[in-house]
Amino acid sequence: TQDCLGEIEASAALNAFVHNTPEIALAQAEVADTRIKAGDAPAMCGVPLGIKDLFATKGVETQAASDILKGFKPEYESTITQQLWDAGSVMLGKLNMDQFAMGSSNETSCYGDVVNPWKIDDRNLTPGGSSGGSASAVAADLCLAATGTDTGGSIRQPAAFVGITGMKPTYGRCSRWGVVAFASSLDQAGPMTKSVRDAAIMLEAMSGHDPKDSTSAELAVPNFEAALTGDIRGKKIGIPKEYRLDGMPQEIEDLWTKGREMMQDAGAEIVDISLPHTKYALPAYYVVAPAEASSNLARYDGVRFGHRAQLAQGDGITEMYEKTRAEGFGPEVQRRVMIGTYVLSAGFYDAYYNRARKVRTLIKKDFEDVFAQGVDAILTPATPSAAFGLGEMADADPVQMYLNDVFTVTVNLAGLPGIAVPAGLDKQGLPLGLQLIGRPWEEGDLLNTAYALE
Ligand code: GLN
């Protein structure tokens, strides 16, 4: 814990941690030490973690990297972080992220950009987003692991951009209680770690039914680490042809081939599959996610949480809402609220929101069909490129940024588990990741398949 606290200070330029909690960390480490000495050490005992700023942490600033929650210190602890403390982990502090988890480059945060520890010629690169602080912190050894959240790829894309492991569990595996809501039907938290084994151990501590989240599943939590046998002989790995994009860089193509060969060498059977509705996933996601976000973000009205705008003489409650929200929400969040309210409005609901929901069902069915044919896992690249330069895409058309999520959003729309694992470097020497998508509730099996790629 002390080493991590030192590294955090020394690496402040990465802008990964936004609130450090050394007193909490040292006190928890002390307790962990006593437990270890007493031979009563749970799985995560003494493991120093960084916590994404989206998780409510009692008495510690929780702002979802937004000015609208300035100074908000929750009176309660999120279920997941509580479970991690109960398992003996240590909180080093809160991690930077895209504002309200909206973004793919960690450039929408009220705390400023996060820097990827990987560089090309001293050029600062994005660590991806929205869990960019988590990714950067784990990759740079500021913590041993971090929590992330994934609504459309925010664990897997940043994990790929910094060369670490990131897993989004099945929707409902982990409680969402106390995690600031972005798009409730898509949001899942998960571990961001240095290895598949760490991901298995941490996911187990984060999982389980929570009576405070009606969408968390009433299922026993398996021992995920025990599933890591390394034996994937006879497993059927599907390669979906729709993920082969026009103009995809050769090195992503090569990475995918390498992954296929590694699976084959480990004794798995490779099969070509089709997920015909894939091309509609991104548009459907960018209707469903903003629709839910516009509803979830209605609560930030200047009354209940955080920031309230300075009012002028004669301003009424409407001006208070308007001024507070205009000042507190960043441009990307405002864009999402506008898209969301538009697609939910009476005149456009059927044309956009309802249609996107139908597309979502078709995407889910594509996966069900493939799994029904005996496919155990699906292998794809995690991202369409390696990390790009900070500022390179932020000023471009936002749709360019949304294209980063092309391989990851399908998993959230279908509620499936997905994992990104580091799979080598591109020709500039930057990390690239592969993604494996698994059957619902079979995270153990998925982790074991990912283990074969390590
Ligand atoms: N990049 C996607 C978005 O901006 C996904 C974000 C996420 O998974 N939280 O919506």
From TrEMBL:
<dbReference type="GO" id="GO:0005524">
    <property type="term" value="F:ATP binding"/>
</dbReference>
<feature type="active site" description="Charge relay system">
    <location>
        <position position="52"/>
    </location>
</feature>
<dbReference type="InterPro" id="IPR004412">
    <property type="entry name" value="GatA"/>
</dbReference>
<keyword id="KW-0808">Transferase</keyword>
<keyword id="KW-0436">Ligase</keyword>
<dbReference type="InterPro" id="IPR020556">
    <property type="entry name" value="Amidase_CS"/>
</dbReference>
<keyword id="KW-0067">ATP-binding</keyword>
<dbReference type="GO" id="GO:0030956">
    <property type="term" value="C:glutamyl-tRNA(Gln) amidotransferase complex"/>
</dbReference>
<dbReference type="GO" id="GO:0006412">
    <property type="term" value="P:translation"/>
</dbReference>
<feature type="active site" description="Acyl-ester intermediate">
    <location>
        <position position="154"/>
    </location>
</feature>
<dbReference type="InterPro" id="IPR000120">
    <property type="entry name" value="Amidase"/>
</dbReference>
<keyword id="KW-0648">Protein biosynthesis</keyword>
<dbReference type="GO" id="GO:0016740">
    <property type="term" value="F:transferase activity"/>
</dbReference>
<comment type="similarity">
    <text>Belongs to the amidase family. GatA subfamily.</text>
</comment>
<protein>
    <recommendedName>
        <fullName>Glutamyl-tRNA(Gln) amidotransferase subunit A</fullName>
        <ecNumber>6.3.5.7</ecNumber>
    </recommendedName>
</protein>
<dbReference type="InterPro" id="IPR023631">
    <property type="entry name" value="Amidase_dom"/>
</dbReference>
<feature type="active site" description="Charge relay system">
    <location>
        <position position="130"/>
    </location>
</feature>
<comment type="subunit">
    <text>Heterotrimer of A, B and C subunits.</text>
</comment>
<keyword id="KW-0547">Nucleotide-binding</keyword>
<dbReference type="Pfam" id="PF01425">
    <property type="entry name" value="Amidase"/>
</dbReference>
<dbReference type="InterPro" id="IPR036928">
    <property type="entry name" value="AS_sf"/>
</dbReference>
<feature type="domain" description="Amidase">
    <location>
        <begin position="1"/>
        <end position="447"/>
    </location>
</feature>
<dbReference type="GO" id="GO:0050567">
    <property type="term" value="F:glutaminyl-tRNA synthase (glutamine-hydrolyzing) activity"/>
</dbReference>
<comment type="function">
    <text>Allows the formation of correctly charged Gln-tRNA(Gln) through the transamidation of misacylated Glu-tRNA(Gln) in organisms which lack glutaminyl-tRNA synthetase. The reaction takes place in the presence of glutamine and ATP through an activated gamma-phospho-Glu-tRNA(Gln).</text>
</comment>
